[in-house]
């Protein structure tokens, strides 16, 4: 009895060992070369739908992270200078000789520019 | 040298309060009382109002003026720079700007500074200490126009050098006015070249205008050589 039991164990264990090391236990029974290849193909096919469109999306997301800065041209900024919100006096303005009580009128530096051009 | 490190120590202590949102109300009142001691970095964070146009960074306006009749070496530069106010949107910027006189109308030895929130307009500030500045000397009559163009380009992110810009200064002096723009890394030649090219484009300067780049370490050395002392964070 002892001898035969040992034999059965050996027969059972020898081929199984290498498979158990690299494959999850629940899929073990189905493993053979053909199913492995199938599984790989299935995985490849699953990945291909991430086509050009999606790829571009991903790349753009990364680009936005780097480049997305809030920028304004001079004209846009100057355009906003005349809106009512921009003319209000700030709530916590220190009293100081350089601080004006009322908003000065910026017809964008025309007076100074005229003076500068005149002086040329 | 002691003063230099005292200044750095001040900076460090101020920064702890700065990084987390708005402080408690009691703290807020306290820090506003202390405003006069250049503690603006402790103030409540500014945010754009509803519907306003946000800026990429928040900024603070500063003003400094050397007291006439006293030699520069006896006056602490840090004590002379006063915060005027901070803003986070285009509209908030115009509110301050429209309530301040133009640089061309300032008298005496005066400067306007516009720096990113959290950066003091000092060579010794952590953001500045490895940096430098482009300097443009202007004959009288040009400062207001050039300053406006310079700060609009800075606020509008026209320099395209990432985080490199620290702030801008206009200095009114006896016979000339000087505008400068400060960046973080003096050794970054690609950045300094790009800043120079953008300056040329946005300032629309007379063709013979000379532009000069100066590192802050050179500025400190020159200051110490000239005044021969002790107090590099002193007057400029």
From TrEMBL, chain A:
Protein name: Uncharacterized protein
UniProtKB/TrEMBL annotation, chain B:
Entry's Gene Ontology molecular function annotations: RNA binding; translation initiation factor activity
A GO BP annotation: regulatory ncRNA-mediated gene silencing
Region of interest (Disordered), ranges: 1-49
InterPro entries: TIF_eIF4e-like, TIF_eIF_4E, TIF_eIF_4E_CS
Subcellular location as annotated: Cytoplasm, P-body
Keywords assigned: Acetylation, Cytoplasm, Initiation factor, Isopeptide bond, Phosphoprotein, Protein biosynthesis, RNA-binding, RNA-mediated gene silencing, Translation regulation, Ubl conjugation
Listed Gene3D superfamilies: RNA Cap, Translation Initiation Factor Eif4e
Example of a GO cellular component annotation carried by this entry: P-body
Main subcellular location of this protein, as a coarse class: cytoplasm
Compositionally biased region (Basic and acidic residues): 1-40
Top-rank taxon: Eukaryota
Assembly with partners or alone: Interacts with EIF4EBP1, EIF4EBP2 and EIF4EBP3. Does not interact with eIF4G (EIF4G1, EIF4G2 or EIF4G3). Component of the 4EHP-GYF2 complex, at least composed of EIF4E2, GIGYF2 and ZNF598. Interacts with GIGYF2 (via the 4EHP-binding motif); the interaction is direct. Interacts with EIF4ENIF1/4E-T (via YXXXXLphi motif); increasing affinity for the 7-methylguanosine-containing mRNA cap.
Family: Belongs to the eukaryotic initiation factor 4E family.
Free-text function comment from the UniProt entry: Component of the 4EHP-GYF2 complex, a multiprotein complex that acts as a repressor of translation initiation. In association with GIGYF2, assists ribosome-associated quality control (RQC) by sequestering the mRNA cap, blocking ribosome initiation and decreasing the translational load on problematic messages. Part of a pathway that works in parallel to RQC-mediated degradation of the stalled nascent polypeptide. Recognizes and binds the 7-methylguanosine-containing mRNA cap during an early step in the initiation. Acts as a repressor of translation initiation. In contrast to EIF4E, it is unable to bind eIF4G (EIF4G1, EIF4G2 or EIF4G3), suggesting that it acts by competing with EIF4E and block assembly of eIF4F at the cap. In P-bodies, component of a complex that promotes miRNA-mediated translational repression. Involved in virus-induced host response by mediating miRNA MIR34A-induced translational silencing which controls IFNB1 production by a negative feedback mechanism.
Protein name per the record: Eukaryotic translation initiation factor 4E type 2
Species annotation: Pagothenia borchgrevinki
